[in-house]
Amino acid sequence: MTSGRRAVVTGGAGYIGSHVVLALVEAGWDVVVVDDLSTGRREAVPPMVTFVHGDVGDCSTIEAAMARHRPHAVLHFAGSIVVTESVADPLKYYRNNTAASRTVIEAANAFAVKVFIFSSTAAVYGAPDGIAVAEDAPTEPINPYGRSKLFTEMILRDVAAVTPMRYVALRYFNVAGADPKGRAGQTSPGSTHLIKVACEAALGVRADLEIYGDDYPTPDGTCVRDFIHVSDLADAHVLAIEYLLGGGENAVLNCGYGHGWSVKTVVEIIRCVAGVPFEVRIKGRRPGDPPSLVADPSKIRSRLGWRPKHDDLRFIVESALAWERTQLISRGG
Ligand SMILES: NC(=O)c1ccc[n+]([C@@H]2O[C@H](COP(=O)([O-])OP(=O)(O)OC[C@H]3O[C@@H](n4cnc5c(N)ncnc54)[C@H](O)[C@@H]3O)[C@@H](O)[C@H]2O)c1
Ligand SMILES: O=c1ccn([C@@H]2O[C@H](COP(=O)(O)OP(=O)(O)O[C@H]3O[C@H](CO)[C@H](O)[C@H](O)[C@H]3O)[C@@H](O)[C@H]2O)c(=O)[nH]1
């Protein structure tokens, strides 16, 4: 049964958005997805969810969706997400992440939406020291992707200061894994994410895995990241909406578990869980990669009461592998 509350979810046909849509439907929300399918898939949107095909950077598209559906909340996932691409084509990122977000925020405001949840990123911190980073750490992004998201956080802060809109910007660390019930997973074509790529290598979809740099100032020389299961992240979104509806103040919150794993360790765990010794090649550093990014998650725990259920890298990998196997079967592999 629905609660009569409606959410517009931009980018809801993508990896994270599709998991959040499932969580919202389970929480009783009516959901409208607006997505241009540039990296998302129509099949990722469940049948009970309204789908609008269009670019959220186009004000007539997003305004029409707001006018028609009059949402109580907007969750804004749509965007471009590849750090190296942002280095090569910064204008794409300032258009699709900053300018398009401005358009979505403007449309939400025009239709008096009071609750706005934004997909931000740990990339806003740049290259912090190896210690877990809290939200009040300096924001000094080292790539256009991180800057394009930080600008949107700034727009939100300025707009919320003079309107009734309230927002939560969630700074995701490295999102991985798939829905434990097998209903959703990562499908973006040509994904560059470590766990996705390594699972594809383990299943023979790719010839090998390249490790980008083993000369970083980290314990084993490879980069360190804080991997969060996508379903725990989805739960954080539902809690963030409830928090704002309950009168919570604007907030910027880290989404991570608070411990880091090196690229080499992740690869070893994937080899072990998959039971296949796929080939790994050490390559040079990838442009835009910080050595270490680990969250201090104290604030999201205290502010939202968020308690992750899947803080276990083996479980994350198992769910990602299970999803990849279903993709192989559906492709007839
Ligand atoms: N995956 C991660 O580890 C990670 C980490 C930090 C932040 N994020 C952020 O989370 C959000 C979702 O990321 P994801 O991993 O699900 O990526 P994704 O590529 O799977 O999803 C993005 C979705 O947005 C859609 N989209 C892109 N531009 C659009 C536009 N202009 N209009 C309408 N739809 C558009 C795509 O078709 C896709 O469905 C992004 O904003 C990303 O920056 C992701
Ligand atoms: O084939 C690969 C893929 C990745 N890596 C390494 O694995 C680490 C993680 O890389 P990912 O591409 O999986 O993720 P990023 O840390 O680059 O970025 C991810 O998390 C960020 C926040 O931390 C951003 O939000 C971004 O959208 C999201 O892609 C990096 O050191 C990268 O060099 C490899 O060695 N080989």
Overview of this structure, please?
- The chain has 2 domains: 6-176 and 227-255, NAD(P)-binding Rossmann-like Domain (Rossmann fold), CATH 3.40.50.720; 194-225 and 259-330, UDP-galactose 4-epimerase, domain 1.
- Helix 1 crosses helix 7 and helix 4 (90-110) runs parallel beside helix 5.
- The protein has 333 residues and is α/β, with parallel strands linked by helices.
- Helix content is 39%, strand content 18%.
- The longest helix is centred in the N-terminal third of the chain and has 21 residues, at 90-110.
- The strands form 4 sheets. Strands 3-2-1-4-5-6-11 form a 7-stranded parallel beta sheet, sandwiched between helices.
- Strand 5 (115-121), helix 5 (144-160) and strand 6 (166-172) form a beta-alpha-beta unit.
- Residues 8-256 form the NAD-dependent epimerase/dehydratase domain.
- Summed up, the domain count is 2
Oligomer state of the chains in this structure:
single chain
Instruction: Give the SSE string.
Output: EHEEHEHHEHEEHEEEHEEHEEHH
Helicity range of the residues? 25-40%
Number of DSSP E strands: 14
Bound molecules: nicotinamide-adenine-dinucleotide, galactose-uridine-5'-diphosphate
In CATH terms, the superfamily of the largest domain is NAD(P)-binding Rossmann-like Domain
Highest-level CATH class of the largest domain = Alpha Beta
